[in-house]
Design a protein that fits this description.
The complex is a heterodimer. By secondary structure, chain A is α/β, with parallel strands linked by helices. Chain A has helices at about 15-25, 45-55, 75-85, 105-115, 160-165, 175-185, 215-230, 235-240, 250-265, and strands spanning about 1-10, 30-40, 65-70, 95, 100-105, 125-130, 155, 190-200. Helices cover about 30% and strands about 25% of the residues of chain B. Classes of the chains: A alpha/beta, B alpha/beta.
C-alpha cells in the first residue's frame, strides 16, 4: 500500500523548505509514501523558487515527491483535479495536507496504526491532529467522533469521496471541508479525529483581527452558502443579519455568496438525512 | 543577519519521550530563523542518556541541537542551566523544560 499525500502550494516558497526537511526525516520503514506537490501560484518566478527547493531534495528510500503546477482552482477544485489525475494509483484512501505544515516524524506510522484499528468502521474522513494548537472544536475522546474535519490535514477514503461527489467546486476556498463533512455524515460515513497522528500547522489566521480581507470575505460567504445549501432561508437571513450594514466587506461577502448560490443545483435539508441524536453545534458551524 | 537565539532545553531523570518530542517539535516550528538548542540531559543513568541521544537524531536534521550530559548534582534543577550557560555562544537565550512547548512565533 502507498500513502498518497496531496499538497497544494500557493506562494508557499517560504514554508516549503521546512515541510521538505520534515518529509526527509519521516519514519516510513517499508511503507511507501508519495507526495503530490501542485503549485497553483500561476507565477513563473514563484514556481522557479519552488522548483529550486524541490531540486535540492535528496533521494529518500520509499518516499517519492512529484512537483507539478496547475491553474489556481482554489482548494476544493484544486484537490479534485489532483485526485482525478492520480486516482488510478490510489488505493483505499489519500491524504490532504496544507503547505504550511511540518510533519512529525511518526506521522505516517501513526496513520497506519489508526487505519488498522478502524478497518471495520464506516469512516469517510479522518482528521489529523494539529500541533501546537488543536483545531478549535470538540471530538469525543473515547469514540474520536467529531462533527467536521479540517482540510488542513485530512485522510479521505476513496469510496465515500466518490459516492458523495468529491469537493463542492462552487466553493473557491474556506468551508469546503465543512461541506464535505456534512455530506459525509448525511451519507452515514463517520468522521474521526486522530489525536496521535500529529503535524505542526503554522496557522497564520488564529487572530481574526489580523485576518486578510480575502480570508474574511470567503469564510463569511461560505457560512452563508452552507446555510443556503443545507438549511432554511431563515438560517441564511439570521447569519446575514450578523454582518453589519456598515461592514466594509459586506458587499463582497454577499456578492461571493450570490456567485456560489447561483451555481448550486440542489438544496438539501440536513435534518432529513442526518442522525438526530448527534450534536451539530460547534464554534465554527452552528445550525 | 539576525542575532543568534539559543534555547536551553532541560531534561531530568528518566525522560518521557512523548513530552520531549512535543518540546522538540515546537522548537523545530519556530519562525525565528537563527535558532539553536542546547539540550541538557541531567541523569546518572547511562541508558537514559544514550536513548535520549538516539531519540534526538531526526530532530538534529531540522535544527542545531547540542546535547550536554550532566551526571553530578542530581535533583539540583539549576545546575544544568548554569552548565549550559557557560558553554553559550549566542546573542539571546531562553529556557524550556522538556514538558513544555513554545508556540511557533515565540
Amino acid at each position: 500500500m502507498v500513502i498518497n499525500i496531496q499538497i497544494i502550494l500557493y506562494y508557499s516558497s517560504s514554508d516549503l523548505p521546512r515541510l521538505l526537511k520534515s518529509i526527509q526525516i519521516l519514519e516510513v520503514g517499508n511503507q511507501s509514501v508519495c507526495f503530490h506537490l501542485v503549485d497553483q501560484s500561476e507565477n513563473e518566478e514563484e514556481y522557479d523558487k519552488v522548483l529550486k527547493q524541490y531540486n535540492e531534495i535528496k533521494q529518500i528510500q520509499n518516499i517519492s515527491i512529484d512537483l507539478t503546477k496547475q491553474k489556481n482552482y482554489g482548494f476544493g477544485k484544486g484537490h479534485n483535479e489532483i485526485y482525478r489525475k492520480n486516482k488510478d494509483t490510489y488505493k483505499d484512501f489519500f491524504v490532504i495536507l496544507n503547505p504550511d505544515s511540518i510533519l512529525h516524524s511518526d506521522l505516517t506510522t501513526n496513520i497506519l496504526i489508526y487505519l488498522n484499528q478502524l478497518e471495520h468502521l464506516n469512516w469517510g474522513l479522518l482528521e489529523l491532529q494539529q500541533f501546537p494548537s488543536e483545531s478549535p472544536k470538540y471530538y469525543n475522546p473515547v469514540t474520536l467522533e467529531t462533527n467536521w474535519a479540517s482540510g488542513a490535514g485530512l485522510i479521505v477514503r476513496l469510496e465515500p469521496f466518490e459516492t458523495i461527489g468529491m469537493f463542492d467546486e462552487n466553493i473557491f476556498m474556506y468551508g469546503e471541508d465543512v461541506d464535505l463533512s456534512i455530506r459525509m455524515r448525511m451519507n452515514k460515513y463517520k468522521i474521526l479525529t486522530l489525536p496521535n497522528a500529529k503535524f505542526t500547522h503554522l496557522t497564520k489566521d488564529t487572530d481574526v483581527s489580523k485576518e486578510s480581507k480575502f480570508a474574511r470575505v470567503n469564510k463569511q460567504a461560505a457560512e452563508l452558502y452552507l446555510r443556503y445549501k443545507f438549511a432554511k432561508d431563515k438560517d441564511v437571513e439570521k447569519y446575514a443579519s450578523f454582518i453589519n450594514a456598515n461592514d466594509p466587506d459586506r458587499k463582497d461577502i454577499l456578492s461571493e455568496f450570490e456567485r456560489m448560490k447561483n451555481k448550486l443545483n440542489k438544496r438539501t435539508y440536513y435534518k432529513n438525512f442526518v442522525d438526530k441524536n448527534q450534536d451539530y453545534t460547534n464554534i465554527r458551524w452552528t445550525l | 543577519m539576525i542575532g543568534k537565539w539559543t534555547v536551553i532545553l532541560r531534561t531530568q531523570g528518566k525522560n518521557n519521550e512523548l513530552e520531549l518530542k512535543n518540546a522538540l517539535n515546537s522548537l523545530v516550528a519556530q519562525t525565528y530563523e537563527n535558532l539553536s538548542v542546547i539540550l541538557t540531559i541531567h541523569t546518572d543513568n547511562n541508558k537514559t542518556a544514550k536513548d535520549t541521544l538516539e531519540f534526538i537524531k531526526p530532530f538534529q536534521k531540522m535544527v542545531e541541537i547540542s546535547p550536554i550530559i550532566i551526571k553530578e548534582k542530581q535533583g539540583n534543577r539549576s545546575h544544568p542551566l548554569n552548565v549550559a550557560l557557560k558553554s553559550l555562544n549566542s546573542d539571546f537565550v531562553s529556557f524550556l523544560d522538556n514538558d513544555d512547548i513554545y508556540y511557533p512565533p515565540h
